[in-house]
Automatic annotation (TrEMBL):
Gene Ontology CC entries for this record: plasma membrane
Name of this chain's protein: Amino acid transporter
UniProt GO molecular function: glutamate:sodium symporter activity; L-glutamate transmembrane transporter activity; neutral L-amino acid transmembrane transporter activity
Species of provenance: Rhipicephalus microplus (Cattle tick)
Key words of the record: Membrane, Symport, Transmembrane, Transmembrane helix, Transport
Highest classification ranks of the organism: Eukaryota, Metazoa, Ecdysozoa, Arthropoda, Chelicerata
Entries under InterPro entries matching the protein: DAACS, Na-dicarboxylate_symporter, Na:dicarbo_symporter_sf
Length: 360
């Protein structure tokens, strides 16, 4: 009946909203782990236990009881929060913790050395994982079709983010043609696409913004280095789409709460990404652990990584340029006469005279 259908729809809506709230609260709980060692191997989540409860004189009813459970997987969010807080506290203490700073610096060098040694075995490992995955797939053609759709989705998302969101924001703030600005940055985009890394292109980005676009050095030399470090819009989009792709590839049901968890985790880990090629693939392990997807399927992405890595790096670099242009416009949108005039008090006459600052 229509009444029964409306009641069922309302009940499903309540359950979905409750599940979304539980997912958000799970992120908050996992952000502050009770045990760091346990956070390296397990993460907490809210589970539901169904029970039949009967009251005297009434029929039995099924109720759901919330439980805080554990499952295998690294609590990446909790480790990131702890490292950020610990590093911030370490940086404020100064000389008393100098030995501890040297220890972590030396540990970083050792770990990077081990990573480079492991990278020499990457071709063998990737080929082995690819062969195992391809042999387990029923239809190779279907797998290639799914990979093609993945590439199209990522490229479409990057194009919308660059040509719609950033260009529209640039036009609304500056009232200038964004495509003309993109034309002045064509060489930067080309170099970013070739190198697949933001850091090596930074000197060229600064030169292009200052000479071709006429932006102030004080803006570009502050915004661009910060953007190279933390502005990873393309990386966040790539991690989100690929995590959902791997989950769907393994027939893992994703709820609205899981989408929210992937969004938060992908944003957090993308900020921590380094501006080196293929850094996002290693960060996807953290996002996949949130939704319980297999990490081994990341090997499939190596087949298209050469293209997607270059596309998202280009998006990140051009995003830094748009941000610099917006900051420059906001800081210096006053009239030149107001910006160039400075008041100087002379020692001889004690009178104020207006001079023009030739540096602007």
């Amino acid at each position: 009946s229509p009444e029964l259908k409306s009641e069922l729809d309302a009940e499903d809506e309540v359950k979905a909203s409750a599940h979304l709230l539980d997912t958000f609260l799970d992120l908050v709980r996992n952000a502050f782990p009770e045990n760091l060692v346990e956070a390296c191997v397990e993460q907490g989540y809210t589970s539901y236990e169904k029970k039949n409860v009967s009251i005297r004189g009434e029929p039995a009813k099924e109720i759901s009881k919330r439980n805080w459970s554990r499952r295998n997987g690294t609590n990446s969010l909790g480790l990131i929060v702890f490292c950020v807080v610990f590093g911030g506290a370490l940086g404020t203490l100064g000389k008393p913790v100098e030995i501890l700073k040297q220890f972590f610096a030396a540990l970083d060098v050792v770990i990077m050395k081990l990573v480079f040694l492991v990278m020499w075995m990457t071709p063998v490992g990737v080929m082995s994982l690819l062969c195992a995955r391809i042999l387990s797939v029923g239809s190779i053609v279907a797998l290639f079709h799914q990979m093609a759709l993945l590439v199209a989705t990522v490229l479409s998302g990057l194009a919308v983010e660059l040509f719609v969101v950033e260009c529209l924001l640039y036009f609304l703030v500056t009232r200038k043609n964004p495509f003309k600005f993109l034309g002045e940055l064509a060489y930067v985009g080309l170099c970013a696409f070739v190198t697949a890394a933001s850091a090596p292109v930074m000197p060229l980005t600064l030169k292009c913004l200052e000479e071709n676009c006429g932006l102030d050095k004080r803006v570009t030399r502050f915004v661009v280095p910060v953007g190279v470090t933390v502005n990873m819009n393309g990386t966040a989009l790539f991690i989100t789409v690929c995590s959902i792709f791997i989950a769907q590839l393994n027939d893992i049901a994703i709820s609205s709460g899981d989408y929210f968890a992937v969004l938060i985790t992908a944003t957090a880990v993308s900020v921590a990404a380094t501006s080196v090629p293929s850094a996002a693939l290693f960060l996807m392990v953290m996002t996949l652990s949130v939704i319980g997807a297999p990490v081994s399927d990341v090997s499939l992405l190596f087949t298209v990584e050469w293209l997607l890595d270059r596309a998202r790096t280009t998006n990140n670099c051009l995003g830094d340029c748009f941000t610099s242009a917006l900051v420059d416009h906001i800081c210096f949108r006053k009239k030149p006469s107001e910006l160039n005039e400075v008041v100087v008090v002379t020692n001889d006459e004690g009178a104020a005279e207006k001079l023009r600052d030739s540096t602007l």
